Amino acid sequence: MILQNAKIFNGTSLDDGIILIDSGKIKQVILKEFDLEKIRSQNFDKIEINCEGRTILPGIIDIHAHLRDMDQSEKETFCTGTKAAAYSGITTVFNMPNTKPPAITANQVEKWMKTAENKLFVDVAFISGVPNDINEEEIKKIINLGVIGFKIYPLKPINNNNWYDENHIQKLLLISSKYRIPIFIHPDCLQHETERIIDDELHKAKSLLQIYDQVHPCNNETKYIKFILKHYFRVIDKFNLPRDKIPIVHFCHISCKSSIQEIQNAFDYNFRMVVYLYEFEPDISFEVTPHHLFLNNNIELKNP
């Protein structure tokens, strides 16, 4: 198959180009100047599609999705979620573990994966929850099932682990170091006056988004990121971890400028040497979600 007369993304911009596909796999991507007749001689199925100037992008990877299913199929299923992804040009989805029941044991993760069999329209990568008591034997079984990481929810844990306890965090970071497995973190701190704030603000007839800001202020997110970074570098120093064994951490759905600044500081050599006394760059990444970028307190949320 040939896709011709297309605008093809080259990594930084769009170029005129042509794509040759053989047996379902991309064989050649040719940009700007090309000999169409020569390419046609390699097109064995003789199928040719004129893209009429449309844009062709690489498959998008959605690194944060909740496909739910199981006891939450009224919200989403593997079928509906991956169909929607495929329709949107997303070819890989990272699936989160706060399912019902939660994916925190090898047995449950295996059931979760089997539920997905023959229901997927795109590739799905599974991220597990952390077993109770950060049980290393159970963690090894889960890793052997093929998960790509472990996710923690400090504010509402899906296990019995306390993610505000520095010993629990350090133990998990050592697991990441030992097994070279990423830890996905939902950064948030406990707001002790949550119920009082919600009650007070509802009486003031504030919008749901304004109340959410009160309950989940930016400094809660930033504070937890600082907590993780502190113990990240402490673990490296305490256990004298070599550069190829440092923990792998990914911060999910960052929504505050101050949080991004804290992460950027960890990559600044001078800041890192002064604050964390560590020479090399950390193995840390983060994501920003579009709906966080565009939310503001002037939007009114109403149930249909």
Please provide a written account of the structure.
The chain has 304 residues and is an alpha/beta fold. The protein has 3 domains: 2-56, no CATH class; 59-145; 162-304, Alpha-Beta Barrel (TIM Barrel), CATH 3.20.20. Helices cover 37% and strands 21% of the residues. It has 11 helices and 12 strands. The strands form 2 sheets. Strands 6-7-8-9-10-11-12 form a 7-stranded parallel beta sheet. Strands 1, 2, 3, 4 and 5 form a 5-stranded mixed beta sheet that branches. A hairpin with a 2-residue loop joins strand 2 and strand 3 (25-31). Helix 8 (218-238) runs parallel beside helix 9 (257-267). The longest helix has 21 residues, at 218-238. The radius of gyration is 23 Å and the shape is globular.
Q: Pick out the low-confidence regions.
A: none
Secondary-structure element string: EEEHEEEHEHEHEHEHHHEHHEH
- Total individual domains: 3
Shape: globular
Radius of gyration: 23 Å
CATH class of the largest domain: Alpha Beta
Q: How far apart are the first and last residues' alpha carbons, in Å? A: 45 Å
Instruction: Average the pLDDT over all residues and give the rounded result.
Output: 90
Number of strands: 12
Percent of residues in helices: 25-40%
Provide keyphrases for this structure.
11 helices; 12 strands; TIM Barrel; about 300 residues; single chain; alpha/beta
List the helices and strands and how they pair.
Elements: E1 2-9, E2 14-22, E3 25-31, H1 36-40, E4 48-50, E5 55-56, E6 60-65, H2 78-87, E7 90-95, H3 106-116, E8 123-129, H4 136-144, E9 149-152, H5 166-179, E10 183-185, H6 194-203, H7 208-215, H8 218-238, E11 248-251, H9 257-267, H10 269-275, E12 283-286, H11 290-294
Parallel strand pairs: 1-4, 1-5, 6-7, 7-8, 8-9, 9-10, 10-11, 11-12
Antiparallel strand pairs: 1-2, 2-3
Helix pairs in contact: 3-4, 5-8, 6-7, 8-9
